[in-house]
Backbone:
């Protein structure tokens, strides 16, 4: 009887550890050795990444299935990963697709429909995208022409901006649906940039908004600012990528900051944690181009983070990590993106 009970408890434990409410999304652009290395990965490097996923028994799944499950509080198989490509470059079908097909892995390509309609020679055609879609690729929205969606035009009001950008997003989704039949309502922000107004607009349109800031995704994620781990260029190193693939999201109840696009050169971020299953003294945040950021705990579940020095104009991040209690070599990971605008 005792033996049967132990067997039952072991089975329950195994069933629990085989499921999770967290996942990781990888972001790629070019698969090429001839194009700018900052956004490129070689076919050999991509193959090494996919070998790691296969050999490590990761669950590579469609992005829409992953995000819709997490958004609805459902569990996923443990070690779930989604693979994404931005911009729909022609080398995706020439180099990436044959490799992914060999592994049988699902993946998503975010495209700009107006650039395809204009027959720009560096992006795939609708016919090529239909070919990939028939083989299991998900084709999703990256805006019409890869413009900075949060920018207001000269003399444009917020209301006019909202109408214009809503038309851009919905028209792009309609074009993808008409040409490929996909209507996932996922929007990858061009350049990974967004502000609160854009987040609110994306939410009102029923879309999930996806950035380029690093971090794992889970049930506490804000689905208007979903993180992805860049995996090209300097981030293609498998030694560092493996840590990210095995990361977990912090359980964050609330984020408080002025806006992601700001003219503050040392913006403050307050994180309220829903749960704190890590040791406070092991929590650390790092700033782009600087060393550790200043962190001050306001209470047991609330911390304020500020850059030690002024941030330069352009994109920046606060990356925060802490070891997961009870797990070896596994970290919580969160990234706060900034766009420091000129005053």
Residues:
């Amino acid at each position: 009887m005792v033996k049967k009970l132990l067997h039952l408890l072991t089975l329950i434990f195994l069933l629990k550890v085989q499921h999770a409410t967290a996942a990781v999304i990888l972001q790629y652009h070019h698969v090429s050795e001839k194009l700018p290395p900052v956004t490129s990965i070689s076919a050999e490097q991509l193959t090494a990444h996919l070998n790691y996923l296969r050999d490590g028994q990761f669950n590579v799944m469609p992005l829409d299935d992953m995000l819709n499950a997490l958004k609805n509080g459902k569990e996923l198989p443990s070690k779930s990963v989604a693979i994404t490509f931005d911009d729909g470059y022609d080398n995706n079908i020439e180099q990436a697709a044959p490799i992914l097909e060999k592994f049988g892995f699902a993946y998503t390509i975010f495209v700009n429909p107006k650039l395809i309609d204009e027959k720009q020679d560096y992006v795939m055609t609708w016919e090529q995208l239909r070919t990939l879609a028939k083989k299991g690729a998900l084709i999703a929205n990256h805006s019409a022409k890869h413009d900075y969606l949060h920018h207001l035009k000269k003399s444009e009001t917020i209301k006019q901006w909202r109408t214009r950008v809503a038309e851009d997003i919905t028209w792009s989704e309609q074009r993808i649906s008409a040409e490929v039949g996909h209507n996932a309502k996922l929007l990858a922000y061009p350049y990974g940039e967004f502000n609160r107004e854009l987040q609110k607009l994306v939410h009102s349109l029923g879309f999930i908004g996806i950035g380029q800031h690093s971090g794992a995704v889970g049930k506490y994620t804000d689905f208007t600012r979903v993180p992805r781990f860049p995996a090209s260029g300097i981030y293609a190193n498998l030694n560092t990528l493996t840590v990210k693939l095995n990361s977990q999201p912090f359980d964050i109840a609330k984020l408080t900051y002025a806006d992601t696009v700001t003219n503050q050169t040392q913006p403050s971020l307050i994180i309220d944690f829903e749960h704190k299953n890590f040791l406070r003294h092991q929590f650390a945040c790092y700033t782009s181009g600087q060393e550790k950021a200043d962190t001050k705990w306001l209470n047991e579940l609330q911390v304020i983070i500020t850059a030690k020095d002024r941030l330069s104009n352009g994109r920046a991040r606060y990356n925060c990590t802490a070891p997961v209690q009870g797990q070896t070599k596994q970290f919580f990971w969160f990234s706060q993106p900034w766009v420091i605008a000129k005053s």
About this structure: Residues 2-247 form a domain with the TIM Barrel fold (CATH 3.20.20.370). The chain has a mean pLDDT of 93. The longest strand covers residues 314-323. The radius of gyration is 21 Å.
